[in-house]
């Protein structure tokens, strides 16, 4: 059974559900410049909006309104024309207190906020299509947002896929998925297979794409996943524990992975604290609470809810081992799809903002570390001069440990078993995208460059050049993952931005991308090998 079989199955399901109703099979009708482009999907007719180059279908349901703490269900058919002219609400967000940290996170990662607020009724997606696309002809890029599984929305203006559609001739699909307690509840009354609801939402959105994307002009055989941070982690979970049949042909992971992580034991504890604070003794009681009450409790108590190993329903603890054992002749339980993976030069700064106690922070980051390892870290990473809100020593350690060095491991291990693998490194900052003075190539800063949604006010010609180069590379990979993004495969690394920093030159005359041996980027990763191996290879 091939990915294209999803389309046939979708049509058969439509016939069975329709019980003789004269619904058309998926088809598109969106001439360039038309005012209301329409598509007929398995659930009914959808009308979007048009510009001369791009047609947008916003807030399209890929699932029914969810029942709190239950797996997603297919979208119900509708009568008449569904208005897809504006985004639907984000899923319920969680930004933890105290006020300073909460406000800072919202400023950095949620400004401007989701266009239509928040709601539990949130399982919708946006589709950006080159105007005039013929049925089944275009590569599809399926975006999964980041946010630490606590917040995020597929409809943030940052993720507007119009530039991709117009300039790269690809279709972009951006779904919502449930996060925090609504997406990863940790209740002991829920079976393990129903704990990772956010992952189940992502999979249902992918199934929807397989059954419906042809109507927009997309090729269901050429779907590439791309995502950042928690979205990238979600993608590696999909790669190492894929649905059957595999509904994607390539994977792009930006500053995140899912196979080099310790088991999550926080959600169960967080659930107990939530229930106690709400004066609830069972799941039914928590279900009945107003969503605003749940949100307030988890934010004020800073409770963490995130994915757990669920026995392989969506996420298993053996992903790294399965990849290392995989061969072309015997793939095992992973999807041997081409991979593009990378990180940013200054990933750690966002996460250590305002931290000053080096020993305390490192002890929390690496709670099982020996005194010898702590001494190695403090002696190897240059100490900070104490100026500014970000301790550079802490930022460098966290950036390597959580992002840069796991990128190295995933890239090397994928390439070593014959999976086509490419690697990038984003190393630039610009005055119009800095989030604090000296923030550099911080975590998430590459997203606006890839999407082409960076602020035009104050943009430099070099910034535009780097953005075009990154966007084209991502799209080239999506169009033909086996051929890659346009540079030599790993171990070499494509460095975007040439180390340009806001306030220190504008990049004039510098190349947008250079190829580099990974030795400089990975020079301290040997420190963490034992930690990764102990967590994931036992």
Describe the structure.
It holds the Pfam family COesterase. Residues 1-20 form the signal peptide. Helices cover 34% and strands 16% of the residues. With 538 residues, the protein is an alpha/beta fold. Helix 1 packs across helix 5 (197-216). It has helices at residues 5-18, 99-109, 162-168, 180-183, 197-216, 230-240, 266-277, 283-288, 291-300, 319-325, 349-352, 358-365, 371-380, 392-416, 447-451, 461-479, 529-536; strands at residues 27-29, 38-41, 44-47, 49-50, 54-61, 81-83, 124-130, 138-144, 171-175, 218-228, 250-254, 339-344, 421-428, 493-500, 513-516. It has a single domain, classed as Alpha/Beta hydrolase fold, catalytic domain (Rossmann fold), CATH 3.40.50.1820. The strands form 2 sheets. An 11-stranded mixed β-sheet has the order 4-5-7-9-8-10-11-12-13-14-15, sandwiched between helices. A 4-stranded mixed β-sheet has the order 1-2-3-6, with helices on one face. It contains 17 helices and 15 strands.
